[in-house]
Hints:
- The mean pLDDT is 77.
- Helix 1 (2-28) packs across helix 3 (72-96) and helix 3 packs antiparallel against helix 4.
- The protein has helices at residues 2-28, 43-63, 72-96, 105-126.
- The radius of gyration is 15 Å and the shape is globular.
- It has one domain (2-30, 42-126).
- The relative contact order is 0.23.
- The protein is mostly helical.
Amino acid sequence: MEELAALVIQIVVEVGLQIFGAAGIDWATGASERRDDKEEAGCGWLLIFALLGGACGGLSLVVVPKLLLPTFGLRVANLVVSPLAAGGLSYLIAKHVWAAGQWPPRHHFWRGFWFALAFGLIRFAYVHH
């Protein structure tokens, strides 16, 4: 029973870091502010979010260098679920919390997606077993 509880806590921590990290950086970069120039919402921002996600993933290796998810299957599932969950949360926040007239919610989805994907890929590739 303790192993199951530890597994659930590990999954919540790993996925939670990626989801809320993406949403937090989305907010911190001024994505909630009104934009008149929609051209500013190009692929450059997506690259920046991927780089920030990779950097945060690298920093997480310094803080927690060991595996949080104990099995290979869970780590692969994390690479699929976390980007979709982070993107979905960013989309929902943009659609329901921030007022209309800003960047489209789908842009927020991709910001969260690329952040969490880069974060997860760095942890997947470089975590100590």
